[in-house]
Structure formats: C-alpha cells, structure tokens
Design brief:
heterodimer, A: 260 residues, mainly alpha, B: 274 residues, six-stranded mixed β-sheet, four-stranded antiparallel β-sheet, 10 strands, 36% helix, globular, binds adenosine-5'-diphosphate, binds magnesium ion
Chain lengths: 260, 274
C-alpha cells in the first residue's frame, strides 16, 4: 500500500515538475524569439522545411474534406429546401473549425514529429551538448528558429487548407450537382464574415501552432538520450499535441463565438 | 591565483561529491591538473569519467565541492561567464558529435560563424588550416554520414581547436578505431598539445596507449581516486587494485558485478513486496 502511495506521489510530483519545466522552457523560447528573427535566414529555412513537408498532406486532406462536405450537405440541405445555403455553410464550417483543427492535427503528425525526432536525435548524439561546449546556447540556435518557423508555417497551411477545401466543395456543387455559380459564391460572400470567420479561424490556427510546436520542441529537447527515448518523444508529441488542439479549440470557440 | 604553490593548477577539484540517485559517483575527490601537461583520467567504464568532464565543463553540478578551471569557480559562474570560459575549452566527444546537417567544413566553421565576424575568406582559410592539421582538408565537403568513425573524430577535433582553446578534453578518443586511425589520433593529440601549448585531459580506460602519451594520470574506482602518478609510477604501484586494472584481469578487487543486494536475499527475500 505504502509503496503504491509513494509511487503515485512520485508520479504526481514528476508530472507536476514536467509541467512546470515545460512552462519555464516555453518562456525561455519566447524570450529568445526576437533574437531568432534577427537571423531570418534560419527561420525561413525552418518555415520551408516544416511547412513544405506538410503541404501535400494538408492539400489533399482539404480537397477530400471539401468534396465530402459538399456531397453530404447538398443532399441534407436539399431536404429542408436550403440547398442554396451550401456555400456559406461549408465556408463557415471550414474556416471556423475544420481548417484550423485538421491542419494542426496533420501538422502535429508530420512537422511536429519531424521536429521532435530531429531535436531528440541531436540530444541522443550529443550534438546539443557539443553546442553547449562551443558556448552556443542550443535553445537559441536550434530550438528558437524551429519554433519560430513552425508557428509561421501552421497558419499558412491553414489558409491552404481553406482554399483547397472550398475548391473541392465548388467542384461538387457546380460540376457534379450543377448548382448555380452565382448562388454558391454570392450567398457565401453575403454570410461569411471577414472577422468572425476568416480572422478568428487564423487566430485559432496560430494558437494551435504555438501549442503543437511547443510540445514538439519540448519533447525533443527533453528526450532521453536513447533510441527508445527519441521514439517516445515522437509519440508523445502526437498524443499531447492532439489533445491540446481539441482542448484549446473548445476554449477558443467559447471565447470567440458566444452567440455569433 | 594561488601564489604559494608557485605554479597554479590549470584545473583544480577539491572535495568533489556528485550523486546520481542514491549512488555516489564521486565521493570527496581531489584532482589537480597541471598546466601545459597531458593528464590521463583512467578507470573502468561506468566509474564516472564522462561525468567528471561534464562537471569540469559546467554541464553538471556537483552536490558539493569546488571546481576551478583557470582559477574560475565553474559552478558559481553566471551563464555568460561560463560561456566565456567554454570558449577557452575544446571538447572531443566520444563519437565526435558532429552536427549532422552540416558538412565537415561547416562543422569546423560553426564556432567561428557563431562567435566572430570574420570575413568569409578568413573563415575559409582558418577552417582549411585546421582541417589540414588533422589531415582531412580533402574531406571538407563531405557530410558527417559519409565519414568513417576515425575521420569524424578528426573533424570534431579540428572543430574543437578552431577557436584556439587553452584546455582540451578528450572523452575516450581511442575506442572503436582501427590501428591506423588509432595511431593517427595518438600522433595528433601529441602534436596539437605541443604546437598549441594546450592543457590536455584524456579520459580513457586504455592503459597501454596512455602509457606513451600521458605525463600524469589518475586512476578512479567507485567514487575515489585509487592512484595517481606517471604511468610508469602506476606500473610500479603494488596495490592489487592498480595491478588488476593495469594488467586487465577480470578477477580482483574491482567488482565484476554492479552493486546490489545479496543474491540469495533478492531471490528469497520476503521484503520485496513491502
Ligand atoms: N544521465 C544519467 N542518468 C543517470 N545515471 C547516469 C547518467 N549518466 C551516467 N549515469 C551513471 O553514472 C555512472 C558514470 O557514468 P559515466 O560518467 O558515463 O562513466 P564512464 O564515462 O566512466 O564510463 C554510470 O554508472 C552511469 O550508469
Ligand atoms: Mg564515458
């Protein structure tokens, strides 16, 4: 009994310590962000490396989701005589929710894991220690530029998702269902708000980007210096980041859309 | 600086205690490393030789004790002071620890690019000079994955000396090398030591090689210094422990088993579910 109690207490304490360490790490990375942007080449390189990896994935996912949404909703809305509202409903769903959430999830699986395993491997092969020994702060030189690149990449990917998803929906609505172009785009323009839908979606995406990239660089940086340690860091990145995305989505939605 | 002892030690460790969990890796240890010499830190693997380098370079913090490098108290330095001290140190990690994304040239150039505003042509000539010194000028454009173990270690060595350090630390520089790479590394360590006027510390369990290389050596076991002296003096040391280590015998006072409870107690003991 005492042993179990002890174990639980120890787990709890290390869990709490890890949480505290994550926050400290977060502030350290944030404090170093301005300096990261003073060497923009390093950041641009990372936007490209991380973003580019996820572009095909986000593009394809967005396209198929646009297709499916249009197929599903065209029929359902038709039953209520509201088929003309297909455009706005798809646009709002995609811009507000599906775009930010699915983009962030896909990014966690592709860019986030790449980030965690890359940094974890640098830890395991003593590259981070070597850097410290060369009087170079690895958080400044390695972590901050990657974090900066990651948080820039996610909202851009989100915009890509939005555009491709709407294009997919347009293909179904116009080419397959022969809906009127004017009705599709006109109604969309009339009822989609720039602030409420587009901007809020991008803000959400930015918040998710912060969370996913923080989890990824933290897990990589604190990975155990073994093959198993790097593997665990990668897996934990996906699990923790995905849960964080859903939880943050709820909070952000509650703040942004009270009765809108 | 300590004027009484005349020539101050380059590195001085007093009363060092360092623990991992319940195990004392160092238990009140004193080490003096003289300036301008080659000092070997020896001991069976797992004694804490790598840990000692971590402590001396300020990457690990002791439970108690005083570590001074060039007269500076390593563990009470502020971050920028510690980094300034590290600019005076070169470390060769066990596997080289080259940055895998950068070519051999860029690895050697890395400290220069981070710490200096030298022109591209200056960096170019400095890097090629150091690569020439380790005999790898021709490998400048190779990536770390394309280098053999011995070559990677030599590139890492070029990187470690590119900022012209005063101190250089080698962690197991001889393990996993073929005989030719091995003698190349031994030659390099000796020639760099002479030409750059370094204080050299080599961590290794390889007695035979250190014999021809080290001016002074420490023998560690189970958290203590068990012997100190020139390799020749160690050879004459009559302690059974020293004889076992130098002779490389499996049986003797050095335990083959990691510290544990009594075997029968662990197999039969009723206290394991407590
Ligand atoms: N990060 C760590 N966490 C816990 N124990 C460690 C860690 N690193 C090393 N140790 C332990 O400390 C002891 C000394 O390790 P090390 O300094 O690497 O030995 P050596 O270099 O002499 O072979 C070993 O028993 C090892 O198990
Ligand atoms: Mg070691």
């Amino acid at each position: 009994m005492a042993l179990i109690q002890q174990q639980v207490l120890r787990r709890g304490r290390t869990g709490l310590a890890a949480f505290g360490a994550a926050w400290l790490f977060f502030f350290r990375v944030l404090a170093l962000l301005p300096r990261a942007f003073m060497r923009p080449l390093l950041v641009v390189e990372q936007v490209y490396a991380l973003g580019n990896r996820t572009v095909p994935l986000v593009g394809l996912a967005g396209f198929f989701i646009g297709l499916v949404l249009a197929l599903q909703l065209y029929g359902v809305l038709g039953r209520f005589g509201a088929a003309s509202m297909l455009g706005p409903i798809i646009a709002i769903t995609v811009l507000r929710e599906l775009g930010p959430v699915i983009t962030a999830l896909l990014y966690a699986g592709r860019g986030g894991t790449a980030l965690a395993s890359e940094i974890g491997l640098m830890r395991a092969t003593e590259q981070l220690s070597a850097m410290e020994m060369m009087a170079v702060d690895p958080v400044r030189r390695i972590i901050a530029p990657r974090f900066a690149g990651g948080i820039i990449a996610v909202p851009i990917l989100n915009l890509l998702f939005d555009v491709v998803a709407l294009f997919g929906a347009w293909m179904i609505a116009i080419l397959a269902m022969h809906m009127d172009q004017g009705v599709f785009w006109g109604n969309m323009q009339a009822s989609v708000g720039f602030m409420d839908d587009l901007v809020n979606g991008i803000i959400k995406s930015f918040i998710f980007g912060l969370a996913v990239n923080l989890v990824a660089v933290f897990e990589g940086f604190t990975a155990q210096s073994t093959a198993g340690g790097v593997a665990r860091a990668t897996t934990r990145t996906v699990v923790i980041a995905s849960l964080a995305i859903f939880a943050l989505d709820f909070v952000a939605t509650a703040f942004m859309y009270q009765g809108v | 600086m300590n004027t009484e002892s005349g020539e101050a030690s380059a590195i001085s460790i007093r009363n060092l205690v360092f623990e991992r969990g319940d195990r004392a890796i160092f238990d009140h240890v004193d080490v003096e490393i003289p300036r301008g010499r080659i000092t070997a830190i020896m001991g069976p693997s797992g004694t804490g030789k790598t840990t000692l380098l971590g402590l001396v370079t300020g990457r690990l913090h002791p439970s108690s004790g005083d570590i001074r490098v060039g007269g500076l108290p390593v563990q009470s330095l502020r971050t920028h002071e510690l980094y300034a001290l590290r600019m005076r140190m070169g470390v060769l990690f066990q596997n080289g620890a080259l940055l895998t994304e950068l070519s051999a040239f860029e690895n050697v150039a890395f400290p220069l690019r981070e710490h200096t505003d030298l022109s591209e042509s200056m960096i170019h000539s400095l890097v090629l000079m150091k690569l020439q010194a380790v005999g790898l000028r021709g490998a400048a454009d190779l990536m770390p994955a394309e280098l053999s173990g011995g070559m990677a270690r030599r590139v890492a060595l070029a990187r470690a000396i590119v900022m012209d350090p005063e101190f250089i630390f080698y962690d197991e520089p001889f393990t996993g090398l073929d005989p030719i790479s091995m003698s190349a590394i031994v030659r390099l360590i000796r020639s760099l030591h002479k030409t750059l006027g370094l204080t050299t510390v080599i961590v290794s369990h390889d007695v035979d090689i250190l014999e021809h290389l080290a001016d002074d050596s420490y023998l560690f076991s189970e958290g203590k210094v068990v012997a100190r002296g020139t390799p020749d003096e160690l050879r004459k040391n009559r302690s059974r422990w020293v004889q076992q280590f130098i002779g490389g015998m499996a049986d003797g006072p050095v335990p083959f088993h990691y510290p544990s409870r009594e075997y029968d107690e662990e197999l039969l003991g009723e206290d394991q579910w407590r």
